[in-house]
Specification:
159 residues, alpha/beta, Rossmann fold, 6 helices, binds 4'-phosphopantetheine
């Protein structure tokens, strides 16, 4: 069985992320969505909230698990006994960073392979930062985040 890991900040998970998770789950039996715990960054949502958002958004997807990790992704992969990393590519602008990261991970761990899924064209402009900015300024985020978490994301900024 191929175990794969879809790592990210997911602050919060967007419809673009969910599209990648769905497509990965259609291809692989075991997909772990791994939320980065980054002590140097102040996320808008706690790691518990981010994990809960992903769990609720993927409740209908068998084989999808939610977890968190800190430190190097390759170390986490080794612990999980997984060697496939999934990442989404939105636009050419993502490529340089993703290429560097995939190359570094491959150098650090010979058995770790990264595969990229092209983000659905409807979500090619979408990012977690964009969602937060929209909500902050009162914009409509319908369809941009999974329906299951939309109200929680809005409530964070509009109390
Ligand atoms: O959603 P993001 O912020 O683009 O995800 C980036 C993530 C979490 C995949 C990346 O920052 C990561 O893997 N961080 C852990 C540290 C690491 O292993 N970095 C890559 C080699 S230096």
């Amino acid at each position: 069985m191929i175990k794969c890991v879809y790592p990210g900040s997911f602050d919060p998970v967007t419809s673009g992320h969910l599209d990648i998770i769905r497509r990965a789950a259609a291809m692989f039996d075991d997909v772990t969505v791994a939320v980065l715990v980054n002590k140097n960054k102040k996320p808008a949502f706690s790691v518990e909230q981010r994990m809960d958002f992903i769990s609720r958004s993927t409740a209908d997807l068998p084989g999808v698990h939610v977890d968190c990790f800190s430190g190097l992704l390759v170390d986490y992969m080794k612990n999980k006994n997984a060697n496939l990393v999934i990442r989404g590519l939105r636009a050419i602008s993502d490529f340089e960073y993703e290429y560097q990261m995939a190359a570094m991970n491959a150098k650090l761990a010979k058995n770790v392979e990264t595969i990229f899924l092209m983000t659905d064209i409807n979500h090619s402009f979408l990012s977690s930062s964009m969602v937060k900015e929209l909500v902050y300024h009162g914009g409509d985020i319908t369809g941009l985040v999974p329906d299951a978490i939309k109200d929680d994301v809005i409530n964070k900024y509009r109390r």
